[in-house]
């Protein structure tokens, strides 16, 4: 019973915040323009501030784990490469292939990673997420550019040089990466910022979780199906159930427990990234399928994350 209550206490507040966003959108209390602006505020200001402060306060000797980072990098690569090899056998349309593969591997780690890790492990969990994110986010973005270009219509295909340029530009201009990089000198040295500055950054970063979850719920409120439910459901189940179960199982065999195992679970068990729909649409991929995968994986995640935390806690693995 204690494990059940613990799991509910972790997941339920996040789910209720998303539900609030859904209801606010349905009742038109807040309009589309608000959520579009709020999403930009989260991605470009609040979340970078939150990550900055987590890395700023982190102690490298306690949070930096090269073994964990290597495992996460290898896991992301594997969950991208395997679908690239298998999906084309079963799906024949290039546009559908790209959207499906992106939906399977690309995680909403930035939005859900921090709040779940914080609720599970406190500041130490958020700090470990901060050490993994500089590696995970660029990989997600680079792989998305590659796969959507490979399976894009001829007029949208990129050359090898264009892929490299787009990937590098995406990394160096990514607000999340910038926030983490700016904090590294403070984490690695005795440098500190004045209290009014850190307090301001803390206030801005504190908006990231509630605002992001409200926007996530609102995005579900506007979802429409396009007759691709079976394909979208397959991709969503792979994303939030099959892949996290397999990766976490392998992680346990490698001896990961506690905070490290929790971060691995959140990284691979989070639903498909919100930006996957936007990128699929801009590169003429099957954006309707991408939207359905986003909605379904987010809805299913409320169940799979709860069950995952419950099982890991029951077996004293976290």
Structural class: mainly alpha
- Count up the domains: 1
Unreliably modeled segments: none
SSE string, helices as H and strands as E? HHHHHHHHHHHHHHH
Give the overall shape, derived from the CA principal axes: globular
Mean pLDDT: 84
Distance between the termini: 16 Å
Portion of residues within helices:
over 70%
Biggest sheet details: none
Got a strand count?
0
Strand percent estimate: under 5%
At the fold tier of CATH, the topology name is Na+/H+ antiporter like fold
Second-tier CATH architecture: Up-down Bundle
CATH class: Mainly Alpha
Q: Gyration radius, to the nearest Å?
A: 19 Å
Number of helices: 15
Describe this structure in words.
- With 318 residues, this protein is mostly helical.
- It has one domain (2-314): Na+/H+ antiporter like fold (Up-down Bundle), CATH 1.20.1530.20.
- It is 81% helix and 0% strand.
- It has 15 helices and no strands.
- It has helices at residues 2-26, 32-57, 60-63, 66-90, 94-105, 109-121, 123-150, 160-172, 175-188, 195-206, 208-221, 229-253, 258-269, 275-282, 287-314.
- Helix 2 (32-57) packs antiparallel against helix 11 (208-221).
- The longest helix has 28 residues, at 123-150.
- It starts with a helix and ends with a helix.
